[in-house]
From TrEMBL:
Keywords: ATP-binding, Calcium, Calcium transport, Calmodulin-binding, Ion transport, Magnesium, Membrane, Metal-binding, Nucleotide-binding, Translocase, Transmembrane, Transmembrane helix, Transport. This is Calcium-transporting ATPase. It catalyses: Ca(2+)(in) + ATP + H2O = Ca(2+)(out) + ADP + phosphate + H(+). It comes from Aegilops tauschii subsp. strangulata (Goatgrass). The keyword ATP-binding applies.
Amino acid sequence: MTGESKTVHKDQKAPFLMSGCKVADGYGSMLVTGVGINTEWGQLMANLSEDNGEETPLQVRLNGVATFIGMVGLSVAGVVLGVLAIRYFTGHTKNPDGTVQFRAGTTGLKQGFMGAIRILTIAVTIVVVAVPEGLPLAVTLTLAYSMRKMMLDKALVRRLSSCETMGSATTICSDKTGTLTLNKMTVVEAHFIGTRLDPCDDVRAISSSSAALLIEGIAQNTTGTVFLPEDGGAADVTGSPTEKAILSWGLKIGMDFNDVRSKSSVLHVFPFNSEKKRGGVAVQSDTGVHIHWKGAAELVLSSCKSWLSLDGSVQPMGAQKRNEYKKSIEDMAKSSLRCVAFAYCQCDIEKIPKEDIADWKLPEEDLTLLGIVGIKDPCRPGVRSAVQLCKNAGVKVRMVTGDNIETAKAIALECGILDANGVISEPFVIEGKAFREMSEIARGEIADKITVMGRSSPNDKLLLVQALKRKGHVVAVTGDGTNDAPALHEADIGLAMGMSGTEVAKESSDIIILDDDFTSVVKVVRWGRSVYANIQKFIQFQLTVNVAALVINVIAAVSSGDVPLNAVELLWVNLIMDTLGALALATEPPTDNLMKRQPVGRREPLVTNIMWRNLFVQAIYQIAILLIFNFSGKKILRLQNESPDNAEKMKNTFIFNTFVFCQIFNEFNARKPEERNVFKGVTKNHLFMGIVCVTTVFQILIVEFLGKFFKIVRLNWSLWLVSVAIGVVSWPLAYLGKFIPVPVRPLQAYFKPCWKSSRRDEEEGRQG
C-alpha cells in the first residue's frame, strides 16, 4: 500500500529526508508497512486494553463479607425452617386462641399444605433479608456519586472502581514537571563562553560567530515554532514548556526564527530520547554541515571534548574547565533549575549517507560545548500543604523525574517531599540508572525507602511500581507521556494529566487529572476514602438490621413456633435497609477526618472493631427490647382486654413499628461510626434527610392504611409514642457505647485459623 505525501517543509532544500524516501518534483513517496494492530501504536494499545482481572481491595473484602453474611443467613433460615416444621407437624404450634394448628389425621390436606407454605415463606424471607443484595447497589451508588462530585474537583474518572482503590493508596509516584510544578518555564541563568551571563539574555560579550552558531542550534534543534504577527505584536511561541522557554530566551538574545531556519536546511533529526536525555539535528548551511545537540546538561557535557571561548575559538576541555562547568550545573540544580546544555560538532558532507539516511546515527562524541542554561519551573501554590496532607494521611509521595538528581532534590525539598533534616542520599534519593541496574531482589529491598528518583526513564518508573506492588503497596502513578503508559497501566491507579498528557497516557489511565495539579490528586484520595467510609457505614447499618431481625425471629420461632415479623414486614425492612439505606448513606460527603487516618491496606478487614462494637450495642438493645415485648407485650402494653387474635396482632404490629423506628434512628448513628456527635453536618445532606422523612411517612401509611396487606392493625397514639421513644433511645445509647474501648487486633483475627483453609481454597480456585 503506497501513498503520496503532499506536505513538504518550505525550508527543506537538501536532497535528504528523515524517512529516507526519494524526492521527485517536490513530493515524497511514502510506503506503509503496517496498519492497525501491526503498528507500534496498535500493539501498545492492545497491551493496554488487556484486563488483568485483578480485583480491587474493596471488591476482595466485599466478597468475603457478602459470602459470610449469606452463609449465616442460609444457616439461620435452615434452622428456622426445621424448627417451625417440627413444631408445626408435631402439634406444638398454636393459634392465638390456644388451639393447635395441625393435628395428624385431623387437619385437612389443604390446611396442612398452607401451613407448610407459610413456614417456607418465613424461611425464604429470612434468606432474602440476610443476603446483602444491597451491597452492590450501595457500592455503585457511592462510586457514581463520588465520580460526579470529583468532576468538580478536576478529576475525570474513567474506571469506576478506581475511586475506591484510590482511597486505599499507600503511595503516590508523581512526576515533577507540571504536576508538582507549574510547567511554566523560563530561562533565568545562562553560562556561555566559560562565564555566566548577567543578565541571562545579555550576549554582548559573545562574538557574532559564536552567537550565530548558538542561535542556529536553538532555531533548528527544536520541536517548537515561533509565529510573528504581521501587525508587529508579541511573538507566539508554541511547543513543550521546555522548548517554549528556550525559544523565548532565543528571541531575547536576538534570534530571528524564520530567517535562521531559511538559511540552513535540516538533513536528519534524532528526536529527544527519554533514555539518552538528548535530541540532535544535522543541518546544512553555507558554512558546512553542523550537528547540534541539546539535552541534559551533565550528559551532554560528558560528550564534549572542547568548548567555545570568548573570541569564538575552540578550546580543549581540560579537567579544570570541565569541573567548572560541573560546578555550575550543580549550583543551578541545587537552586531547583532544570539544566539544559547546547553542543555541536562539524561533519564532512562526504560522511553523510546518500541513501538510507533514516538509519544514519548522528555523531554524539567529540562535541564542542556552546553553553548551558538554567530553566526555572516554580512549584505550584498549595503543593507543599498537599504533600503534608498526604503524609498526615499515611500516603507516601515519591517524586520520579527525568531531571538532574540535584534539581530533583531541590524541588523535593521545596515541595516538602524531602525533609531538610532527614537523610538525602541513597537509597532515599537515587538515580534511575542505579535502580535499573539492580537485581529484582535488590530493587524490592530498597523500593520502600526511595523518595526521589532522578534521571529516570519511563521503564524505571515501571520497575519501581512493580517493586512497590510486590511489597504490598497500593500504588498510584501520575504520567503524561506515551512512554508512561506501561507504568500507568501496571499501577493500581493510573492518573494521567489532562492538559499535557498524550492520548495514549489518557487511554491507559484510570483517572484523568484535568488541571494537572497535584492538589487535585490529593482530592481524589479524599474522595476515595469517602467511598470506602460510606460503604463501611452502610455495612454497619445493614449488619445491625440483619443481626437483630435474624435473632428475634430465630428465638421466637424456637420458643413459640411463630415469628413476630412476617414475610411482608421483613421485605419492607429489607427495602429500608438495602435500597433506601444505600441511597442515604452512600451519598455522605467526605470530611477532613478522612485524611487524618492511615490508609487501609489490602489485608485490613472491612468490618473494623469499632463497627463491631457499634453493631453489637444497637443489636443487643433491639433484640432485648423486642423479645421482651414479644413474650410479655400483651401485659406490658395492657392488651388483656382485647380479643386474643386482636391482641396478638396489636403486639406484633407494635414490634414491627418499633423495629422500623429503631432502624430509622440508627441510620443517624451509622453516619459517624467513630464520632460521638452523629448529627454533625446532617442538615447539609439533603438526600439523607429526605430519605429519612420518606421512610417515616411510608411507615405511618403502612401502619394506618395498609394493615390488611401487611396483616397488621392500627396503633393508638400512645403506642406510637412508645415506638418512637424506644427508637430515640438508640441515640444516647450510641453516644455512651463509643466510650467502650476496642482491642487493636481485628476481631476476625481470632477466627483466622478457621477461615484460613477456606480462603486458601478460594485463592486456588481463582488461580485455576
